[in-house]
Amino acid sequence: MRSKAYKAVKEKTSEDAIDIAAAIAFLKEHARTKFDETLEIHLALGVDAGKSEQAVRGNVVLPSGTPKQKRVAVVASDSKKQEDAKAAGAVLVGGEDLIADFEKNGISDIDVVIATPDMMVKLAKVAKILGPKGLMPNPKTGTVTPDVAAAVAELAAGKVAFKMDQQGNVHAALAKASWPADKTEANVRAFIDAVRAVRPATQRGEFIRKIVLKTSMSPAVRVIA
């Protein structure tokens, strides 16, 4: 059951796409909850989600930062790299001891796991724990790297990874309703550009079929980009 406030805002929206700046202004104006709502983007892609060669994934550094500070765990065999990662902002660091802890206790309250290449064979034993949570390090998302400290710093600076879901859609949280409109718009445009940049070579027809913006509690607003 939708709230009266939601229905009231829904009545003011249209199926027609509007300019990004206008959509952001509308969503900011109607963000009336007691908490600072998150602004989300959802893109429907014109890909064949059943074909692996048309899978869409990538990453982008958002110019205005992210709405939530990422909690990062780093797995590295070298103690110096562990120390550097900790200094860069990682909340959890370790080597085989950390993998053993994942295996015994699972993993919670972590948004990203980064690993050095030499630890990937050893991480395989906890793939069934990390994989379902989307936490298994992957070279394609920059989470397998010899320079773990730099990877942690990039996340702190606003780097986010994206991956198409089984229906061919891409989702991301890009801002807070309280942010200045220009900073929100910069993130929205940077994200859309990043998705466009990884268009599969075998994809035909319209690549991005639909883009909508919404806040945590609002209806979706379709945008032109």
TrEMBL record:
* SUPFAM superfamilies per UniProt: Ribosomal protein L1
Show the InterPro entries listed in the entry.
Answer: Ribosom_uL1_bac-type, Ribosomal_uL1, Ribosomal_uL1-like, Ribosomal_uL1/biogenesis, Ribosomal_uL1_3-a/b-sand, Ribosomal_uL1_CS
User: Which Pfam family, any one of them, does this sequence belong to?
Assistant: Ribosomal_L1
Q: Which GO molecular function, any one, fits this protein according to its record?
A: structural constituent of ribosome
- The entry's keywords: Repressor, Ribonucleoprotein, Ribosomal protein, RNA-binding, rRNA-binding, Translation regulation
Record's GO cellular component, any one?
A: large ribosomal subunit
GO BP: regulation of translation; translation
Taxonomy, superkingdom = Bacteria
| Gene3D superfamilies hit by this protein | 3.30.190.20, 3.40.50.790
Q: Which PANTHER family match?
A: 54S RIBOSOMAL PROTEIN L1, MITOCHONDRIAL (PTHR36427), LARGE RIBOSOMAL SUBUNIT PROTEIN UL1M (PTHR36427:SF3)
- NCBIfam families, sorted: rplA_bact
UniProt lists the family membership as follows: Belongs to the universal ribosomal protein uL1 family.
**Can you name this protein?**
Ribosomal protein
Q: What is the lineage of its organism?
A: Bacteria, Candidatus Kaiseribacteriota
